[in-house]
Specification:
The complex is a heterodimer.
Chain A (H helix, E strand, L loop, with lengths): L3 E7 L8 H9 L2 E9 L5 E8 L3 H10 L3 E4 L3 E4 L19 E4 L4 E4 L9 H5 L5 E4 L1
Antiparallel strand pairs in A: 1-3, 1-4, 2-3, 5-8, 6-7
Helix pairs in contact in A: 1-2
Chain B lengths: L6 H9 L5 E3 L2 H9 L1 H7 L2 E3 L2 E4 L4 E5 L11 E4 L2 E3 L7 E5 L21 H9 L4 E6 L10 E6 L6 E9 L6 E3 L6 E3 L2 E3 L6 E3 L18 E2 L2 E4 L2 E8 L6 E4 L5 E5 L3 E6 L8 E6 L3 E9 L1 E3 L3 H7 L7 E6 L14 E3 H6 L1 E4 L2 E7 L3 H16 L10 E2 L16
Parallel strand pairs in B: 1-2, 11-24, 14-27
Antiparallel strand pairs in B: 2-23, 3-22, 4-7, 4-10, 5-6, 5-8, 8-9, 10-20, 12-13, 15-28, 16-17, 16-22, 17-20, 18-19, 21-22, 24-25, 26-27
Chain lengths: 133, 399
């Protein structure tokens, strides 16, 4: 069975819950955490691979706990033509995939670190960050 | 002997291809290396640049006359209303105007994907724009409706006229409240989650001429990729000095420019339609102002580095919306550009809204225009009011 890649997002009040433990124990899933981050406001984002026959049920359980779950089928691309290198996105990127190079102050985008949280798509003032399926 | 130069002398050197031009970034190192007096003797012009979202921008358009003629009373470009109460086929399109029926903030925070600034970008990019206009009809202008496509080259005139651009200095915006707020300074996370600033610091035009010794009516500038002019002081031009807690003057603040230029000369790289989530639409504008080094004093200001230029930190959850005076402290542009500042004892990550790389590109382009002799300095017929004019903002009292 091929692993299923999903993105989980959870608010500060969920950060202390042992959700991964429950997925393993109650739903017999093999879990590979690809990326996990908690921002300074204690909101978490996690990209995980789920393998197991009960992965659907596991995802339903997460949703029932108030976790936002969506498949990792999108990727983020920077429209280089459109990007003005202003830097407004950099402070909103939870993984540092978008960052300012100093002293040139040019914006760099490292797609490998991107967890498709879509924050940059929402905050980019010139709509240079695009979500592609 | 300290140097004194006139505009005429500088322009003669530009025409002869002998003018020495440095960007406002390059001149900092030159002064550090060679000192003020020697640099003032050697350098004729310092070029500045800024590329930021600038509300109070817009364009006057003359569409040309239809057959039969129409006296337009209402008009829309790509669904965005333009102001047509000027003459039969003249109109003004403002950067922050939204399409009719835009959901705005009814689904908060609104996206504001398209607005007047985007129409200006579409025009300057030579994309076709849908014009719709209506009228009541007169004997001399019988037509009552027109719907067609226009492009920038097909209409008579398009004059970019921005009543307030190029703010001398700007607030560094933070959010002290417990919820995310959506402002014209971007998305501000709760409890000092981030700090946004919006000037080019040491490259920014009016930070480098804080006493308005050179900028005035008739100053020729880089505007949106073409040549434009300073035509007046901008609206809300209240020049003064930013002061620290002890009342010491730190740097210029409060000045603005009204600028004008031919949109047909401009490029979409330097006029970009811009959206602020939860706030609205606007236009990001590229402006570059040359500073003639008429004497050592002018150079001294033009050579100020980020370490000696400052911004006030302002809370946009309460102080700004409620127009309460005061700030949360002063930070230098060097600190802002480092990526982190201290506010109320907390480390706060920073991000710019103004593109420093594009500001540098503008200053460099303007420098090359001057070096090639394509761009002569415009001697102001009148300088703009400086801090000595003691202009200050009025509160609109609701009676």
């Amino acid at each position: 069975m091929a692993p299923e890649k999903i993105v989980l997002r959870f608010g500060a009040e969920k950060a202390d819950k042992p959700l991964i433990y429950r997925l393993v124990k109650d739903y017999d899933l093999v879990i590979n955490i690809i990326k996990a981050s908690i921002n300074p406001h204690k909101e978490g984002t996690m990209v995980v691979e789920l393998t197991g026959e009960r992965s659907r049920e596991g995802i339903e359980f997460l949703r029932a706990q108030g976790i936002t779950v969506h498949p990792l089928t999108q990727e983020i691309a920077r429209n280089e033509e459109r990007c003005t290198n202003c830097g407004a996105c950099t402070v909103h990127c939870p993984t540092g995939a978008l960052y300012l190079e100093r002293p040139s102050m040019e914006v760099r985008f490292n797609g490998d670190d991107c967890i498709v949280c879509l924050s940059c798509v929402k905050v980019c003032p010139v709509k240079a960050m695009e979500a592609r399926i | 002997m300290s140097i004194e130069r006139t505009y005429k002398e500088i322009n003669a050197r530009i025409k002869a291809g002998k003018a020495v031009v440095l960007t406002a970034e390059e001149v900092i190192d030159r002064v550090r290396e060679k000192g003020l007096a020697r640099t003032a003797r050697e350098v004729d012009v310092v070029t500045t640049g800024t590329f930021s979202p600038m509300c109070s921008s817009g364009v006057f358009l003359n569409f040309g006359h239809t057959r039969p003629r129409i006296r337009i009373s209402k008009a829309w470009l790509n669904g965005v209303p333009v102001y047509a109460g000027i003459a039969a086929v003249d109109a003004f399109l403002g950067a922050t105007e939204l399409p009719e029926g835009d959901p705005a903030n009814s689904d908060y925070p609104g996206e504001f994907r398209y607005g007047g600034g985007h129409v200006i970008e579409d025009l300057v990019a030579r994309r076709p724009v849908r014009l719709k206009a209506i009228s009541y009809g007169t004997d001399c202008y019988p037509r009552r409706e027109v719907e067609t496509e226009i492009t920038l080259d097909e209409i008579n005139e398009a004059i970019l006229f921005n009543p307030r651009n190029c703010y001398q200095n700007y607030n560094c915006a933070v959010n002290l409240s417990d919820r995310t707020i959506y402002t014209y300074m971007g998305v501000l996370k709760p409890r000092l989650g981030n700090a946004h600033y919006s000037t080019a610091g040491q490259l920014s035009p009016l930070l480098k001429d804080p006493y308005f010794k050179t900028v005035g009516i008739g100053t020729r500038i880089f505007l949106g990729g073409g040549i434009g002019y300073v035509v007046w002081h901008g609206t809300q031009h209240f020049p003064g000095a930013l002061k620290d807690e002890d009342g010491r003057e730190l740097c210029g603040s409060g000045g603005t420019l009204a600028v004008l230029g031919d949109l047909k000369q401009m490029e979409a790289r330097w006029l970009v339609g811009t959206s602020f989530r939860g706030y609205g639409a606007t236009l990001t504008v590229g402006v570059g102002v040359p500073i003639p080094i008429l004497n050592e004093e002018i150079l001294e200001y033009a050579a100020k580095p980020d370490e000696e230029l400052y911004a006030p930190v302002v809370d946009y959850s309460d102080s700004y919306p409620n127009a309460k005076p005061g700030n949360l402290g002063i930070v230098s542009y060097a600190q802002l550009k480092s990526g982190q500042i201290q506010v109320l004892g907390k480390e706060v990550p920073t991000a710019p809204l103004s593109s420093y790389p594009r500001a540098r590109e503008i200053a460099t382009l303007l420098k090359s225009w001057i070096e090639k002799g394509d761009f002569l300095l415009g001697e102001p017929t009148q300088l703009l009011p400086g801090p000595e004019a003691r202009l200050c903002g009025k509160i609109l009292n609701v009676k």
